[in-house]
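Bug: token stream looks shifted between consecutive jobs. Job 1:
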Amino acid sequence: MRRAAVAIAALWVPLSGVSGSLAQSVPDLDAVIAAFRDTFGSDCDSGGMDSDLFERFPPEVYSVGSPDRGERLYVLICNLAAYNATYALYLSRPDGQIEQLEFATPVVNFGASPDDAGESAAFVRFDTDALLFNVVVDPAQMSITARVNWRGLGDAFSEGRWVLRDGEVVLTDYVIDPTLDLEENPIQIVQDEIVVLP
């Protein structure tokens, strides 16, 4: 798993959504978009078929750490669907290096039926994801939350929270609700950085 080395000395400072002429005030944006398109190409609507997706949903840019270091976190939309959108996240450094972030996510076995998940769910391993769903950045907590809605009603989902800490992207919490019962009753998989599911 690749880990992002991030110096965090202060709160993230959110910048404006960036598009068109605003891009000139964020000098790394063109390089980040080029890296994004090189990695994902036509796998993302914003890199292929729907090339104006960035105009409708401009990249989000956050200053990471102390302002004099010039590190920035970029959140770029990849695909947009009915109730989920996917995003790629990049970090640019003062030396010009651009790094794509990857996120640890648990793989869980639910046995024969997700409806019995409370009794049969078992942690299998960790995997890594380069794209996150429905990303929310919390500058005050220096955290990234992502939620995958398994259907439009939102009663079945998985949701994770990661923080940038001591140079790493750390998964702190992860829940899954695999049941189609019109209620939210998630199973805690990871809590306070510890796998709590057997």
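Job 2, same session, no restart:
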Amino acid sequence: MKNLMTVTIAVLGVAGCAIAGPVNIDPDAFAAGTTLTSAFAAATLTSNQIGANVQFLSATNDIIGRNPSAQPVGQISTPSTGVLSFAWNESAGGNQRFTEWAEIVMRFRADFSANANSVSIDILGNNSFDFGYLEAYRSDNTLIQRVNSANVTAGNFQTLTINSGTFNIAYIISSGIGGETVGLDNLNANLIPLPTGAAMAMVGMGLIGVRRRR
């Protein structure tokens, strides 16, 4: 009597595991004005306020792609790629979208769908004296590393990079230092790859069922 094995594969939930390796998160992937908060499978993008000196308490968390030349007020930066950079909403000012970031006003945050071992973002200058930073955090909110830019002048940019050496970066925060305003563009990350034995992991998750019959 032969033994026959039937393998049943259920793919529910696997799609979310497919984002791995190098990823690029750039506003130019979508039309201007598109809400980018959940537009990228590799990361959730939000804005984040800190400190007692925040100037816009009614800002929403949504991030959009915007051409800095459409900036409602203030100085403007030049995107490092394409024509769009990351912008945040300020609903108190008539739902205005600002492409310039300062940590006393608003910070950019990206939570990755899987841990990364390296991240980078472009800091865009908008006048003769601008400084930005990039911070990488573990999932328990422990700071892994912070890097600050040199002075980035109007029309120029500097790419800030953090290499942690292991896949422990759960999210990043970036903005201008103190009251300095900068633009932000072209986020890149290297996410943890799927293991070679991905099928065995699926078995452990109950996604593959094995039934033996005679």
